[in-house]
Design a protein that fits this description.
This protein is of the alpha+beta class. 22% of the residues lie in helices and 35% in strands. It has five helices and 14 strands. The strands form two sheets. A six-stranded mixed β-sheet has the order 1-6-5-4-3-2, with no helix packed on it. A five-stranded mixed beta barrel has the order 7-8-12-11-10, surrounded by four helices. Helix 1 packs across helix 4 and helix 3 crosses helix 4. The longest helix has 17 residues. The relative contact order is 0.14.
Length: 263
Amino acid sequence: MGRLYRPFLHAGGDPTLDLSLAPLDRGVPAGGVVAFDSGLGWRIVATADGWSFVGLRANRPYHALAVDREWRKGTVFLPARLRSGAGRPFPIAYPWEMLLFTSLLGHRDGAIVHATAVVLDGEGWVFAGPHRAGKSTLARLFKARSDVTVLNDDRVAVRHVHGHWHVFGTPWAGSARLNADRSAPIRGVCLISHGRATKPTRLQPARAASKLLARCLHPYWEPAATSKLLDTIARIVTEVPCYDFPFAPSFSSVLRGLQVAER
């Protein structure tokens, strides 16, 4: 279990998804249709009972996960010979944990967003953008401030809870390797790009929706969750201020931009 994951380990509570372990040679549920093939050595199969997430090496399963259609129970299938002690592998290894959360959040008014997010004055700001848009740059700028918490520099979770949209830190940090097990109500969503100056422009919901949707992880394998993700994005851009946000790489410039956005 890596450093980035440890803060998110919590005991107790009622699990959303109950997972058990089984040896891989017991057999992964099969007989379905390939719902998604990553082309990167893993695929998702829709079975009669749910979904099988299968990692492949030389076209043979080496690690798999099966879940039911209600997303309440599942089984992780691992090779029978596991390393022991401190070196024992985390059973829900990449990419399974992100795939699970992508579908789980899709059904529960949420999404995983490619974004840096911070907590400033008790409120969350989400800075979403593609690769090289400046997410890690912003995270490093905010890291230098003791009054700001960087929730993550690459992937965050957003979800509607207790009547408000919240942003949550996740273990899946990017190149800046920054994250925190905290959350905050979202003050604004900024669709970022590098610029000579920081100039936020309020976006209309239709324009913001297409930009934000492109920054989300999509549960392509499950039409119901995909449909709900579209509804979630439509609600976020309607209920949360969204901005086109070219920025200059200095904390003072970004802070002034946020102050302008709040007016």
